[in-house]
């Protein structure tokens, strides 16, 4: 379904077809899969109805990574710290139906309908072939572009007006980026976008391959089943910043008290909704939503038999993922992991602007390529920062009264970038 290759689905119908769609948002062992039903009433003449009903799972796409790698406190019962962290159920689903030329196999026209969880109806034509694209409607930060030949359907966001937290080595001694690293344009975060494509649904007149049943009026109905699971197009990366050696002394307290934001480079500018392949254009994306600092005992990353006390901050970044790949290639539905051996197109860096106890800013940049490319569909990115490396002269500067970090509330996991976007 996600490779972009066409697989013909021949749907036999003499007269009337009713299409029922029940979809599961996530592909993992905790999610019950539903089917797409085509019901054919042979007592009528035209194909009449296309009914959609939604049943969306709410598990994290990368739940296995979450449970083993995440240190920041999150109450799974009442979501007291963050609110819902994973993908959320869409209120509306846009269904675009494409007419397919039976000779060339190309799309030549389209029409669309909007459905909520209660369903909806549309009219189809017997003897025709269709492609169907489903994705959640009502996004705020996403632009869509449908090519005139219906060959591509791209989703992307506009340039952001935020200042990035990326610094080259020449600008900052605490940057791992080479001086020759290219300058990235910073783009807005996308909304959560989930969807799927059903290719080559062929309406013909042979019901022999259908399951036969009867409706309440005794009419004969033939059922054809299609798996139609919605999966994310945009991906969530959760970033946890583990601060080592943060307390300088009992008198002076913590060196780092918060963070003003972070930027990740080497991300894709968008994706093609038909093929799920991400665009090769690389951008950076910034967020200023960094949660308040927590103190935890964790295993020492250098010696897992030992426990160390650290301060941890967390943030969430919505992205289009990594450039030039199909993120779901070799996806394992049972384990929720991606087994593809992906070769990075270019490096990913994260820049973080930390807030010091005297209100001054301290910016670092780290390479996170290996972590990002091992999680092409999103996941947990862990950054270790040694606060003892902060120059003492910066810490000893006169206090400005700037205060601590970004103390966000439960509802603050949404995008906070304001920009006019046309859909």
List its salient traits:
mainly beta, 2 domains, six-stranded mixed sheet, five-stranded mixed sheet, 3 helices, 4% helix, elongated, disordered C terminus
How are the SSEs ordered, and which strands pair?
Blueprint: E1 9-12, E2 16-21, E3 35-41, E4 49-52, H1 63-69, E5 92-100, E6 107-115, E7 129-137, E8 143-146, E9 153-156, E10 186-187, E11 194-204, E12 211-214, E13 220-227, E14 231-232, E15 235-244, E16 247-249, E17 253-254, E18 256-268, E19 270-272, E20 282-287, E21 294-299, E22 307-319, E23 331-332, E24 337-338, E25 349-356, E26 361-367, H2 369-373, E27 379-386, H3 392-395
Parallel strand pairs: 1-11, 2-4, 10-20, 15-27
Antiparallel strand pairs: 2-3, 3-13, 5-6, 5-7, 7-11, 8-9, 9-19, 11-14, 12-13, 15-22, 16-17, 18-20, 18-25, 21-22, 23-24, 25-26
Explain what the structure shows.
The protein is mainly β and 423 residues long. The chain folds into two domains: 10-54 and 91-157 and 195-231, no CATH class; 62-89 and 160-193 and 233-414, no CATH class. 4% of the residues lie in helices and 39% in strands. The protein has three helices and 27 strands. A hairpin with a 6-residue loop joins β8 and β9 (153-156). The two termini are 26 Å apart. 39% of the residues are buried.
Structure, briefly:
The protein has three helices and 27 strands.
């Amino acid at each position: 379904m996600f490779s972009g290759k066409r697989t013909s689905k021949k749907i036999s119908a003499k007269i009337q077809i009713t299409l029922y769609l029940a979809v599961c948002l996530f592909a993992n062992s905790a999610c019950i899969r539903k089917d797409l039903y085509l019901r054919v009433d042979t007592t009528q003449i035209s194909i009449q109805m296309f009914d959609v009903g939604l049943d969306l799972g709410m598990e994290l796409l990368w739940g296995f990574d979450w449970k083993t790698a995440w240190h920041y406190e999150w109450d799974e019962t009442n979501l007291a710290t963050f609110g819902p962290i994973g993908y959320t159920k869409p209120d509306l689903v846009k269904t675009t139906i494409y007419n397919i030329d039976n000779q060339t196999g190309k799309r030549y026209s389209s029409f669309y309908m909007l459905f909520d969880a209660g369903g909806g109806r549309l009219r189809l034509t017997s003897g025709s072939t269709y492609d169907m694209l489903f994705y959640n409607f009502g996004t705020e930060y996403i632009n869509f572009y449908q090519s005139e030949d219906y060959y591509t359907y791209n989703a992307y966001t506009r340039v952001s007006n935020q200042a990035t937290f990326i610094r080259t080595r020449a600008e900052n001694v605490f940057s791992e980026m080479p001086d020759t690293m290219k300058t990235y344009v910073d783009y807005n975060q996308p909304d959560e976008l989930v969807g799927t494509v059903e290719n080559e649904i062929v309406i013909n007149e042979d019901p022999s391959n259908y399951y036969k049943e009867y409706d309440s009026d005794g009419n004969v109905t033939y059922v054809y089943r299609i798996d139609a699971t919605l999966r994310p197009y945009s991906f969530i990366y959760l970033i946890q910043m583990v601060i080592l050696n943060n307390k300088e002394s009992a008198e002076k307290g913590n060196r780092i008290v918060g963070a003003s934001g972070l930027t990740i480079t080497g991300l894709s500018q968008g994706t093609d909704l038909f093929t799920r392949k991400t665009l090769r254009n690389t951008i950076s994306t910034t967020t200023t939503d960094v949660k308040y600092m927590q103190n935890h005992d964790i295993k020492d990353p250098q010696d897992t038999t030992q426990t160390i006390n650290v301060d941890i901050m967390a943030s969430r970044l919505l992205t289009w993922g990594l450039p030039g790949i199909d993120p779901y290639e070799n996806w394992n539905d049972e384990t929720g992991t991606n087994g593809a051996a992906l070769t990075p197109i270019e490096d990913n860096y994260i820049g973080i602007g930390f807030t010091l106890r005297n209100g001054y800013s301290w910016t670092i940049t780290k390479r996170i390529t290996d972590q990002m490319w091992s999680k092409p569909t999103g996941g947990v990115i862990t950054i270790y920062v040694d606060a003892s490396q902060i120059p003492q002269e910066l810490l000893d500067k006169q206090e400005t009264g700037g205060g601590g970090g970004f103390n966000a509330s439960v509802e603050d996991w949404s995008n906070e970038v304001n920009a006019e976007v046309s859909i």
